[in-house]
Amino acid sequence: MPKTNKVSIETRRYTGYNPVTRLVDIHSHVYEFEEKELRSILDKLKDIVIVGVSDDLESAERLISLASRFDQIVPCLGLHPWSVKNREESISEAYRIIELAINNNIKCFGEIGLDTKFVPETIEAQRQVFRIFLEAARDNNMFVNLHTAGTWEEVFNLLVKYDVAAANLHWYTGPLSLLKDIEAQGFTISINPAIKIQRKHQEVVRKAPLEIMLTESDSPYEYRGMRLTPLMITDVLEKIAMIKEVDVEYVKQVVWDNFRKKYLYYFKDWIG
User: Fold this and answer.
1) Domain assignment of residue 215, yes or no
2) Which of 90, 116, 165, 213 could share a disulfide with 150, CB 3.0–4.6 Å?
3) The CATH number of the domain where 94 resides is what?
4) pLDDT tens track for 66-80
């Protein structure tokens, strides 16, 4: 079982600055930002790695362009469950995105997944599209960046079934009982700025071990009047540290180590 007991700051205090430690934003729709705002964000965050995700083929192409121009951005291409409409057209688009990723030496699919919470009417088409991405991830040794609203257990079981090696469940608010299985499989969950006000997200942080946590912004999504940006990653680290009762620099180091050990390989040809 994951360790959930509180650990004193004294026993977990970060004892030295590690110059290679970077901030991690494992899930951001950076292509949605106007370039002026994006440049301003990146100028303030020289030490961040932002994993940009796409929603469809058009945004995937834009994301590749951004990742080619900005050192802090690495690309992750996918077809968002909300973008799945017509089954045949979506399947065709999925194959084109997969081809685009492979041709550009991109080792990450995202945002992909399933959603019965917001778009239950397309769930059968979503399942077909998702399986296509999982097969490609397995066959090409790729990392997957996942949307799992209402479908956490189904998605997890499919990851195991398709023998996917690396996966992050973004903005995790799923069953606390699933956390031990996520840990055992070597997967991660990501925590975003909603932790400031979302009680379920806070409870996840209380129960989950730091060793499966990453940070994300899911920017520029607006949640309860709060517009999310990568600039909030430090706020997320501080909130995690407060809930866990550990030093914030320790949390930053653990999150970076989680990313470095599990996923840096998949972005080695893109990382700045």
Assistant:
1) yes
2) 116
3) 3.20.20.140
4) 999 999 999 999 999
